[in-house]
Amino acid sequence: MNSLFDDATEEPTGGTSSRKSRLPKLGRSVKMTGLDVGATMIKVVVLERRPEGVVLREAALASTPPGVATEGVLTDGISVARALKSLWNDYSLADQRVAVAVSGERVFCQAEEASESERGDLPALARSRMAETISYPADSASSGYQEVPGGFVWVAAPAESIDWIRETVRLSAKTPTLVQAQSCALANAYSFSYQPDAQDVALLLHVGARRASLVLMRGEVPIYGRDVVINLAWPAAARSVPERVIAALDLHWDQIELRSRPAELSRILLSGGPASAPELKEAIQTRTGKPVEELDAFLRVSYSPGAGPGRVVAEHRSSLAVAAGLALQGLEEQ
Amino acid sequence: MIRINLLKGRAGSNDSLPPALDASGAPSRFLTKREIVLALALVAIGCGIIAAQVLGVFREPLSDDEPLVAIYERPAAPTPPPAVAGEPPAVAAVPIVPSEPPIAAAPVQSETSIVTAEPPVQERPEREFGAAPTHTVAALKLVPWGQAIEILAEVQGQPQYRSFWLTNPDRLVIDVEDAELRVSPSELSRASPHPLIRQLRAAQNSFEPARVRIVVETVRDGPVEITANGVGISVKISPAP
Lengths: 334, 241
Description:
The complex is a heterodimer of chains A (334) and B (241). Chain A has 334 residues and is α/β, with parallel strands linked by helices. Chain A has helices spanning 19-22, 77-90, 122-133, 159-171, 182-194, 241-260, 278-288, 308-316, 321-333; strands at 30-37, 41-50, 53-63, 69-70, 73-74, 97-102, 108-113, 141-148, 151-158, 175-181, 201-207, 211-218, 221-229, 265-272, 292-294, 301-302.
């Protein structure tokens, strides 16, 4: 990963971190905690990479303390940290490193095409594309880019969001080693679990209590990702969850169709708390005409569904997708 | 896999608190050079003080009449108080009837212990330091025999053991040699499991040599019979006749 603000640290290729190739992984067993702090629920997934594959070590959900959000944005870090600390204690989660997500309308994850000549100065190109898209000064954003076939992916989030989540996790006596956009975490969970073909286009739709995340995937590349508010833009009492999700989808449907070309959107994968509701699947399928299924971020993760964390995953698979994606990326980085 | 980490792409620099681990998971540098130098200086001063004391720099000079060699004498053992007529002696021997032929008494561990007869304590085979003990104390069972009570310590193999009494309060101690305790925690300590037993407890007394100690707080009125068989060690405590 490269920062868009620190030219001195950028590698000549501008590509992904070379840590993976530098560190031998054979025989190493490492664990990573993925943490997804939502408006109503805190989700935690601990994965371990063993020589035989990725194994689920722990999965947990807890309620987000009431009153910690101001206008839908989590602001009371001390209460959240206290809840996190209780969670660590209740589940005896001793691992220090935590990967955590940020989300919101001001968090972007997007792929851009770039010709060979343009890639000569990829940092400047990524910075300019980001500045054109985000709705706040680029200097106040935390961002990064990664070279992918045919172009690059850039991610940006307000710096204060990164600071808030980092300090909150630190207050809970853990060390945040990775902060990722929620849509990228979803993309990673999908890539790891489904290992799609390079031209396969799928839409990931993560429905939360307050926001929905849309991530359009071509192969393993998130070509378009946005977070949309689904409970404040309209009077909540007047519209059901499926209606609100459809409305959010409508806002971005043109972009989704445009960016899918020349391929067709093959399916929509739902995640988040309401994802298992049949009426939501039916509503989306009726509206888009595309097959809708539930995203399983644990397809290639070994666990026993009968007991312990496996049972939590079996019951709340959809809700844990983001936390699983974070843990998977954290494992890749070690 | 998207490997972008927004922690590394932070625009500003308000990292007021150094993290315990950096973004790659490696320990970060907590100490500045000045702190390291200060710590080394303190360590050096400490070493100097210790060395000076060892070398006797701070020792006061000996006076002329102070002997250069100290002679340590073992203090004489206190004489027991004279027995009062009508009262039993403070420490009375209780017959322990072994079922196996007695051999020479094992060394007494306590100044008040009384070992009337001991089961065989054979020459222990040399056990490599750190090797696993030969025997395992797997359970402590209580078997009532009418008014008597039998404490059965299940030990695999033919364990070597010895027993002796301690006082204040009166308690019978059985040391099982070359043994490891694998009794569930609920069995390790029992309060008043029987009228003849005030408390029963067991513990790994030492690891090198491996020794399990079973302690029975009981009255010393009645006979106590200790036997060893293929199942383990049996301690039968009967009420006073």
